[in-house]
Design brief:
This protein is of the alpha/beta class. It has eleven helices and 15 strands. The protein binds adenosine-5'-triphosphate and magnesium ion. Magnesium ion binds next to α1.
Amino acid sequence: MILKSISLNNFRNFEKKHFNINPNLTAIFGNNARGKTNLLEGIYFILKGEGFRESREEQLIIFNEKNGYVIAKLEDKINKDISNLRIDLTIGDFGLSKSFFLEKTKKGRQSYLKNLITVVLFSPEQIEIIDRTMSIRREYFDKFLSSIDSEYKKRLTNYNQALRKRNKILETGFNNLNLDAELDYWNKLLIDNGSYLILKRREYITYLNSNTTIDSKEFSIKYIENKISQERFSESLQKELLIKRTLIGPHRDEYNIFLIDKSAAKKDIHMYGSRSEQRLGLFWLKINELKYLESFFKKKPLLLLDDIFSELDHNNQKLIFNLIGNYQTVITSTEKELTKLINLSNNSSYDTIDL
Ligand SMILES: Nc1ncnc2c1ncn2[C@@H]1O[C@H](COP(=O)(O)OP(=O)(O)OP(=O)(O)O)[C@@H](O)[C@H]1O
Ligand SMILES: [Mg+2]
């Protein structure tokens, strides 16, 4: 299935705009603040039911309006069947509400999203997955695993709730006569849910380490589990009571990403990677998201690349065009020059949109 077209109505800075999307590659060009990222967000929104910025959802509607909608057409590549999608946005007394429609029939969010194509977004801000703290890396993996496994999502919520409760009990400290029994209850919940999280994380890391190369570059990832067990809880209790925080369990797992050079030496790109090496490391994660989603859902995901070319040299830009060849892709850039490179590296058709 591919995205054929999208119309944005009172969405972000677009009052009313229709865009056709190429089955292979669509390149959106425009100066700063023309709406390139907003258009990508519109595509993401119609396929995921949410925006991708950390802003309040009301901000998806154009300034000073209370209603907006996005319409899109998907096409089945084989039998050419068209599906019509629509999401209405309305600001009411209780904030923003969204209504989902498939073929003009109103649907619940889950049933609307169920049969759509999945999306992988790659934007410059996501470099934080590589260059910032471990908790951001953990969040990235949690979000991805939650998006493909509802059990993971549920257990993660349970785990985090239990963790907060357990920390509260640690705060009551040495004065709590019931300490052992109370902790025991939450320990069991943490072990039960945490073990599932660790198992699924381990599986995905194994997948990543079986797909290590992009072009001539090789990456690997090391997953360091913070093992969770009753014994470890007992061992660390005294220390935990002092600092009033739970020190054991997958909320403290670590992920380290390495670039492997020709002599097989490994370099941790969080600590030592250059900016472009970090970007390629992130792209390695993203390409694997694509491949994993494709094998999981048996459908090719749509790839959205927001302004990722500006910091890459010619060779790395070429490398990215070669890798995205198989997937329907929408890119944005301020550099019209990029079309030269597209003409060189891309054998299939493409369209450009000038904003
Ligand atoms: N709800 C909204 N209503 C109206 N305008 C908005 C809304 N939300 C964002 N904008 C504006 O839309 C404009 C385009 O934003 P966008 O992020 O898409 O730009 P861009 O083309 O990606 O620019 P850049 O090259 O700087 O990344 C900005 O001026 C932004 O302030
Ligand atoms: Mg932008």
